[in-house]
Amino acid sequence: VYLSTLCIFHLTMSMAMKTLNTTTQKCQVRSVASLRGASSSSMRVSAVSPFNSASSPLSAKAAMATASASVACKATTTQEAATTTTTEYGMNTLNVWLLKQEAAGTIDSEMAIMLSSIATACKQISSMVTRAAIADMTGLAGAENVQGEDQKKLDVISNEVFCNCLRASGRTSVIASEEEDTPVGVEETYAGNYICVFDPLDGSSNIDAGVSVGSIFGIYSETEQCLVDDDDEEKLAKCVTNVCQPGNNLLASGYCMYSSSCVLVLTVGDGVYGFTLDPSMGEFVLSHNNMKIPGTEGQKIYSFNEGNYAMWEEGLQNYMTSLKTGGAEQGSKPYSARYIGSLVGDFHRTLLYGGIYGYPGDSKNPNGKLRLLYECAPMSMIIEQAGGKGSTGRERILDIDPTEVHQRVPYFVGSKHEIDYLESFLK
Question: N or C: less crowded end of the chain, CB within 10 Å?
Fold first, then answer.
């Protein structure tokens, strides 16, 4: 049904364009004929009439009127064509956008294929999240991940979906997932030149409640070859070396939010773009062009889990107190608290509305709980491309050189002036 509908759509558009071109050509032919006729008539009148000086202006006026009608006809037809074929977003799907990026030299064909494969994984996960309650995919899977966190059923399934799509693309050499103990080298037959790090389902503790969840990913180029036929220790060392790169080396980053709509937000180092999944087409369509986080004109929103307030350092407590009395503009309207408990959901709201999101360290977890490679670095690349800032409160996230695959860091992200104000309390 989908293919039939698509064929009919393309056929209809093709016929419409042919009709439009034919109309334009006929209009131009009639205009030329009219001009020639008017010119001929003018010459005949001038030749036989003794009042040449009086008849010529009349003929000239007729020719000018005909020419004006011609121009008006052509202009109207051209304007109608432009109106018919040009809209702000139109049918600009993710694949079309990737082809344009490749043509512009921003990415190569290998990267385009890899990002398209990730989009396919996101579509599958979106479908599963939507049907989780009726397909027995809620609840715990009965195991823990490497961080000691209970894995949900969808955590395990989403990880498999991501890994399978990336392997099948044939463009990845190493896959590193939050749900895996160590990075995994792809079999040489299917291996490519890129490394993909990802959190297949962030905020999975919210799945049973139907709250927003999402997937996060980042793409690096490989620094050393890492193949599955190496000796185990050597293989592991090379894989870890490949993966443990600072965020400054990221080539592309993105996240997909599964909520009332499925939104894929992506950057390849040249701005941030958002694509919304159209269920009727099964395609991601450009919906947020060149996204920018609001600056001082944005909303005064903070997103922190204040249940841990008593365990925060004194500087952070002072900062939080100041937000309730106006922040940098003391005495002005206090900040509003908005906290979903899902990094993707809170980040997406912050990107659209402005403000600050934070997951700080505390006396129980000095480095917080968010992973540098899978969450903080990719999200920081996105926010910086959108004009914001990502920080630990003391240093820029993208400057940190990881020492462990599952390394955790305190994380603050948002509008640049909001992060600067936070750092004034912590540095």
Answer: N
Angle at the Cα of 16 from the Cα atoms of 13 and 19, rounded to 5 degrees: 150
Per-residue pLDDT tens over the stretch 204-255: 888 888 889 999 999 999 876 555 444 556 666 666 767 889 999 999 999 9
Q: Which of 269, 266, 305, 308 is nearest to 287 (CA)?
A: 266
DSSP 327-359: TTSTTSPPPEE---S-HHHHHHHHHHH--EEEE
Residues listed for the chain: 427
Nearest CA to 174 among 243, 268, 233? 243
Closest alpha carbon to 253 in 314, 190, 182, 199: 199
Structure tokens at 172: 């990845």
Rounded Cα–Cα distance for residues 405 and 257 (Å):
24
What does the block give as tokens for 77? Answer: 């037809």
- The model's pTM: 0.76
* Cβ atoms within 10 Å, residue 278: 15
